[in-house]
Amino acid sequence: MHTDDAVPDYVEKYYWWAYARPWARAFFDRQWIINLILYGNYKRLQESALAEFEGDLSGRTIQVSCCYGSLTPTLAKRVLRDSGELDVVDVLEGQLENVKRKTGENAALRLAQMNAIALDFPDHSFDNVLLFFLLHEMPQEYRERTMAEALRVLKPGGKLAIVDFGVPEKWHPFRYLWLPLLGILEPFAIPMWRMELKELLPREMGNRTWRKESYFGGLFQKLVSTK
């Protein structure tokens, strides 16, 4: 199964236990569990992502891929407050149903089952694009195509924010003790612990200016570009 609009094989092979089963969504989508998985950094990373769009959500915003936790409901409320529009897309229908459950009725929110490597939107459709802990879960080919699509649908001068794993500092104990074990569950994240994202995606991220902020000894990062 490799068509652009199909659920990729790797999602079922590697992440069935985390995203593709109803019991997985019921178990993992708890604030304390998500915070534990991110070593106590969830709220900090969520607020850092949301801060990039605060005060200017009157246009169109897209979140590419659902995520557990309170980020999407919070973003949806702020978009509604600013009379904007929020699209949330995911390749798994169950994940979209979970977002709907969390957000309830929100006139600003539109949900669509869609593959991140083939977004069904015209060029330059969105003022804001958010990728929140998505790229580390993708094989390199999907990572490249997802980034290309995110930039394609971004308006000139629009803002793209990425929050994800980064390269931890050499002194970071997780670099040697925990990441090798975590790599068994997150095999596609390993390159992002070893190389900067701009090195992994030089063609897609080149010719743009990126602002980077690091958290928790470099294990997490935020990258933002408007040009």
Explain what this protein looks like in three dimensions.
With 227 residues, the chain is of the alpha/beta class. The chain has one domain (9-225): Rossmann fold (3-Layer(aba) Sandwich), CATH 3.40.50. It contains twelve helices and seven strands. Strands 3-2-1-4-5-7-6 form a seven-stranded mixed sheet. The longest helix has 14 residues, at 140-153. The chain is globular.
Structural descriptors:
227 residues, alpha/beta, Rossmann fold, 7-stranded mixed sheet, 12 helices, 7 strands, 21% strand, globular
String of helices and strands: HHHHEHEHEEHEHHHHHEE
Large-scale geometry: globular
Bin the helical content: 40-55%
Could you tell me how far the N terminus lies from the C terminus, measured between alpha carbons in angstroms?
35 Å
Number of domains: 1
Radius of gyration: 17 Å
Class in CATH? Alpha Beta
Given the structure, what is the number of helices? 12
Proportion of beta-strand residues: 15-25%
What average pLDDT do the residues reach?
Answer: 95
What's this, in brief?
The chain is of the alpha/beta class.
Please write out the topology.
Blueprint: H1 9-15, H2 22-28, H3 31-37, H4 42-51, E1 60-64, H5 71-81, E2 85-90, H6 93-103, E3 109-113, E4 126-132, H7 140-153, E5 154-165, H8 174-177, H9 179-185, H10 190-194, H11 197-200, H12 202-205, E6 210-215, E7 220-225
Parallel strand pairs: 1-2, 1-4, 2-3, 4-5
Antiparallel strand pairs: 5-7, 6-7
